[in-house]
Automatic annotation (TrEMBL):
<dbReference type="Pfam" id="PF11009">
    <property type="entry name" value="BrxC"/>
</dbReference>
<protein>
    <submittedName>
        <fullName>Bacillithiol system redox-active protein YtxJ</fullName>
    </submittedName>
</protein>
<dbReference type="InterPro" id="IPR022551">
    <property type="entry name" value="BrxC"/>
</dbReference>
<dbReference type="InterPro" id="IPR036249">
    <property type="entry name" value="Thioredoxin-like_sf"/>
</dbReference>
Length: 124
C-alpha cells in the first residue's frame, strides 16, 4: 500500500469480493443456500450497505471469519439491493428482521441468530 493510499484511502476489497462469501441475490440463491444447510452449517450475513454500524460489524466479522476453522458456508445479503429476500428469510425462519444480522442455519432450520455487536463467529 502506498503512502497516498494510507492517507487518502486506496481501493479496499469489498465484502462481495471476499473469497468466503456466497452471494444471495435471488430467491433461487436463498433456496440453494437452505438446501446446502443439509450438508454444511450455513451463516447468512444480512448487511445494510448504507449503514456505518453495519459496515463496521461486517468488517470485524470478516476479520474473525478469516481465522475461523469451522466447517461453515458463509452467505452475504445486501439488504438495500434485495429487501424482498430479506423479508423472505424473516418469514421462513420466523426471525424478526434486524440489520446487521447473522443467521445460522443447519438442516433447514435457524439454530442461532444475532444482530449488531453480538455478531461473532462464536454464535456459529
Amino acid at each position: 500500500m502506498s503512502i497516498f493510499d494510507k492517507i487518502f484511502g486506496g481501493k479496499q476489497e469489498s465484502s462481495e469480493e471476499k473469497s468466503f462469501w456466497n452471494k444471495i441475490e435471488s430467491e433461487e440463491d436463498l433456496e440453494k443456500a437452505i438446501e446446502n444447510s443439509y450438508k454444511n452449517k450455513i451463516a447468512i450475513f444480512k448487511h445494510s450497505t448504507s449503514c456505518f454500524i453495519s459496515k463496521t460489524v461486517l468488517k470485524n466479522f470478516e476479520k474473525e471469519v478469516e481465522n475461523f476453522d469451522g466447517k461453515v458456508d458463509f452467505y452475504y445479503l445486501d439488504l438495500l439491493a434485495h429487501r424482498p429476500i430479506s423479508n423472505k428469510i424473516a418469514e421462513i425462519f420466523e426471525i424478526r428482521h434486524e440489520s446487521p444480522q447473522l443467521i445460522v442455519i443447519e438442516n433447514g432450520k435457524a439454530i442461532n441468530n444475532a444482530s449488531h455487536q453480538h455478531i461473532s463467529t462464536s454464535i456459529i
